[in-house]
Amino acid sequence: QVQLVESGGGLVQPGGSLRLSCAASGFDFRSYVVSWYRQAPGKERELVAIITSGGSTNYADSVKGRFTISRDNAKNTLYLQMNSLKVEDTAVYYCRALGNWGQGTRVTVSS
């Protein structure tokens, strides 16, 4: 079955950086669109970034120019490089593939 395991979250100061990872298994990772979502406290889950099997990417306006989504098909791993973090980036970040979700990793941006 599809398994997605996120890691890399934590506490960071505004302006800092984090790299999230999502280890995927149970499906042919290289062949599918995979994406990052986030859910802030009291808000609905929202799409952050998406990457196709061919490597095309798209981002939410709120993170364009600061976040980079990438994938390593040899390692079946999805990444999200997050730079210039803002307080409003605080959320639980989830990866998604084939309609499945990981357990999430918490990112807290605070001074």
Task: Provide a descriptive summary of the structure in words.
The protein has no helices and eleven strands. The strands form two sheets. Strands 2, 4, 5, 6, 9, 10 and 11 form a seven-stranded mixed beta sheet that branches. The protein has a four-stranded antiparallel beta sheet with strand order 1-3-8-7, with no helix packed on it. It has strands spanning 3-7, 10-12, 18-25, 34-39, 46-51, 57-59, 67-72, 77-82, 91-97, 100-101, 105-109. With 111 residues, it is mostly beta strands.
Percent of sequence in beta strands: over 45%
End-to-end Cα distance = 40 Å
Proportion of residues in helical segments = under 10%
Number of strands: 11
Question: What would the keywords be for this entry?
Answer:
about 110 residues, seven-stranded mixed sheet, 11 strands
Q: What is the fold's blueprint, element by element?
A:
Elements: E1 3-7, E2 10-12, E3 18-25, E4 34-39, E5 46-51, E6 57-59, E7 67-72, E8 77-82, E9 91-97, E10 100-101, E11 105-109
Parallel strand pairs: 2-11
Antiparallel strand pairs: 1-3, 3-8, 4-5, 4-9, 5-6, 7-8, 9-10, 9-11
